[in-house]
Structure formats: C-alpha cells, structure tokens
Write a structure and sequence with these properties.
Elements: E1 2-4, E2 9-12, H1 19-23, H2 27-35, E3 40-44, H3 60-67, E4 71-77, H4 84-95, E5 99-103, E6 110-113, E7 121-125, E8 137-140, H5 143-159, E9 161-163, H6 176-186, H7 191-198, H8 202-216, H9 221-230
Helix pairs in contact: 6-7, 6-9, 7-8, 8-9
Length: 239
C-alpha cells in the first residue's frame, strides 16, 4: 500500500508475491473500507459484479452491512439480468435489502462510502495495463472527488430501471413459448393475435412481456425485441 502524503489519496496495489492478490487486486483493503460504512454504500460496476472485481464484487461484508442497517444502491449493466450466476447474486443482495438498478452501460467502476457524511470515501479503479489487467484501486477522501462521483451516480440512477429479486428468474434464458411470443410481437402481431397463436390469454401475454422486459432491462417492447435479437433469442416463425 502506498500513501501519497500531500493528498488524501491511498493507492491499493496487488502484492507482487501473491498470485491471489494479482487476481483480486486490493480486495482486502477495499473490504476493510466497506466494512467501515456507517450510512450508505453506492456501487457502480461495469463488470456486472465479478468475483475478481474489488469494486463490484459481492462480499460477505456487504450482507453484514445490510443486516446492521447500512443502505446499498447498486448500478450494474442490463446484461447482468440475463447472466444466471450474477442474477442469483444480485437476487440475494436484493433480498438482503439492497436497491439495484440497471442501465445499458455503466460509465465507470466506483464505490462511494458514506458520501453524505464528513469523512466519506470514494474507491476508483486505476488505469489498466495494455493487457486489460487493473493496476489497483485508489481511495479518495477529497470532498470534491466524493461529491463529483456521487453526483455522477445520482444522474445515472435517475434513468436506470429497477431490478428486484422477483424480477430474477431461476434461469435467465427465455423458454420456447417466451421466444415465440417475443418474435410474434417484434414482427408486428397484436397482443390478441399473439395470445391466440400461443394459446394463452391476453392478460398472460402482457404479464409475460413485462417479465421479459424486466429480465432484459428494456424500457419498451421494441427495445426488448432488439436486445433479445442481439442475444439470438428470437425464433424463426413458420408462415
């Protein structure tokens, strides 16, 4: 750990002699800082909460913090909704009390710890190497950095789509009927004709569409179709 004396910045780097530390740079230092939270932790993760990410990774201490009343708000990419392992972890975090939202793209990796309190901290990732490996994380105590990062979080948060534990299915992939429904709607069928085609009620069609949109983090039916097409979920329909 290197402390820069002239500025309230601590740089946490992986230990060169530890293979585990290289895979999980600065995780112990970040975990200790998160454990000190008194009021709120804000999480922005571009990697959809990866085990190897000291900023976005779901830690035991996060669940411990939630149990003792620390508020959590988490921003992750829409793709987290359809990744089974990540969806399960997010679901567990939501059940523990965290508020989770998704956006198409998260602008940066950051943790804001007690940003509204004196002594609040921000954890940011250092620049990556040419191979994409993180060099470490930096902890900032400067009020201007804390405020700016928290404001960025709040701006993105306003446009993000809520995600609750009930939105997360046991399997993230669509089943055959859901794929057929989405394909019908994306090709221009009405709810009524789609319902007749797949043999369910119009009410069931609308419930299925709402569930699919939640799963994809889509803000409209058209966007849900586009996102599903990107994932190869739309089926070819017989004439």
């Amino acid at each position: 750990m290197t402390v820069l004396a002239e500025n309230p910045v601590t740089v946490l780097r992986p230990a060169a002699t530890s293979q585990h530390a290289v895979r999980c740079p600065s995780s112990a230092g970040v975990e200790a800082l998160v454990a000190s939270a008194k009021q709120e932790v804000l999480v922005m993760s571009t990697q959809s909460i990866s085990d190897r990410d000291p900023i976005g990774g779901v830690r035991r201490v996060d669940h411990e913090n939630l149990r003792r009343g620390v508020r959590y708000r988490v921003l992750v990419p829409d793709t987290a909704r359809t990744a089974p392992v990540l969806a399960n972890r997010l679901g567990a975090l939501a059940l523990a009390g965290a508020v989770i939202r998704t956006v198409p793209e998260v602008p940066t990796d950051a943790l804001v710890i007690d940003g509204a309190l004196a002594g609040g901290k921000v954890v940011l990732r250092e620049d990556r190497t040419a191979a994409g490996r993180s060099l470490g994380t930096a902890v900032f105590g400067l009020s201007s950095v804390v405020t700016t990062t928290a404001e960025l979080f709040e701006r993105v948060w306003l446009s993000a789509v809520p995600m609750t534990a009930s939105d997360l299915p046991d399997a993230a992939e669509l089943n055959g009927r859901e794929k057929e429904l989405l394909s019908l709607l994306f090709s221009g069928s009405t709810d009524e004709s789609a319902a007749a085609r797949i043999g369910v009620s119009v009410r069931t069609v609308r419930r299925m569409v709402a569930d699919i949109m939640n799963r994809l983090g889509a803000r409209s039916r058209f966007q849900a179709g586009a996102k599903a097409a990107d994932r190869g979920w739309l089926v070819e329909l017989a004439g």
